[in-house]
Specification:
Length: 373
Amino acid sequence: MSDSREGLLTIDLQAVGENYLSLSDHLAPGSRCGAVVKADAYGLGMAQVAPALYRHGCRDFFVATQAEGESLRKQLGGEVCIVVLTGVRAGAELECARAGLIPTLFTLQQLRDWVAICERAGVAAPCAVKVDSGMTRLGMTPEDFDLLLADRALLRAADIRLLLSHLACADEPGHPQNEIQLRNFNRAAARLRTECPQVQLSLANSSGIFLGEEYHFDVARPGSALYGVNPLPGSSNPVRPVVELSLPIVQKRHVSSAQMVGYGATQSVAAGSWLAVARGGYADGILRAQGGQGCGWACGRRLPMVGRVSMDSTTFDISALSDRERDALENIEILNREVTVDEVAGYAGTIGYEILTSLGHRYYRRYKSGAAI
Ligand SMILES: *Cc1c(COP(=O)(O)O)cnc(C)c1O
């Protein structure tokens, strides 16, 4: 069994719940807040995170794969709505429908197959359709969407519950692509609703919630902001941090003459420096790209990483600590309230999402949950 000697990853489920409520509060009246729990809830553990969201009132969950959907269905039972964002595998339609999962379909052929296969088996087949409103990733092309609208028989046979689309630039509020996508989505929604008046609409991810009420529609789909990533890069973070990561120090050493540190001898430290080598490296999700730039946190201050991040260890310059502080030091934090996932992402040239989804599996994971609501 692993224990905190391998590093302690603390996941604050109370903060996840509060973030869910605060994002819900941001929504226009009549819009409800769903939650994206794909990729094991962005690496934080869907088995713990999803029930916490459920306790805070969430009933609309989005996962990436059918396997994630099936395991979520087992955890949460039949009452919640589970949408699989990357569709349905050809041949797995009936498994998907029988698990009560709503696949997001992006081609006309996929929709035809889904309807035909489920109809033949007599299985209810609610589905979601995703249109490409300008991101040019997943989504029905305008040509397929036109064909869909012209196919009255298919529209009658299909049980399309949700129309969704995804924003490419929601984290840049001034980006003209947002308005273009909004306009395209509204147009597609109006056309589909003349045929299927019941269909619900969903456009906003975390950052999309902050673009204004016209982006909210029926269901919002935040992921990252639930987990503490700032949905407003460059402005103060409206959500609470969720993760803390503390690494045990396995060696402290005094450097008596100037030395080069770590693989490739990329960085030097001056004579008289103190170094701490912590357990935890790139195999644990401490991205190697932050070597020489990242930092840890101890005794109320940032302490620079030195040299490259190794597979299992990372070295910090702790010369700034007093003798007393240094002697007492046992752990160094690399994610906390001060050193946020967004800050760390900046050192590694990436985004907070990748920091979270890279978090390793050798840490001892502690879940903090507040009082049940
Ligand atoms: C991942 C994902 C989301 C959540 O995005 P965040 O930026 O993490 O809030 C929403 N919708 C789709 C289609 C996604 O793939």
